[in-house]
Fold this protein.
Amino acid sequence: MTNPIDDFASGDCGQNSPCVSQFLDECPQNMECQEVIQALVAKCGTCSDSYTFEMRVRTVVSKRCSDEVPDALKAKIFMALQQVRDER
């Protein structure tokens, strides 16, 4: 697995990159990671929109769900959300 800080600090997101969700998944409690994502969101419109969307989804899910969600289900939900977002 690559270092998420190196991956995301470059800011090379591309149109279909899951950079924000992957970043949030890989280092949610790491302060260095949080600084990198805040800088990325500040300079990248794609990441800013993705960040806003991801945070809304994560807020709703955390408020509504208290059970542990299996990784396979998380991946399936993520893929469905990505597909809907890409179709916009």
Summary: DSSP finds five helices and no strands in the chain. The helical segments are 4-9, 19-26, 31-43, 45-64, 71-87. Residues 57 and 81 are 10 Å apart (CA to CA).
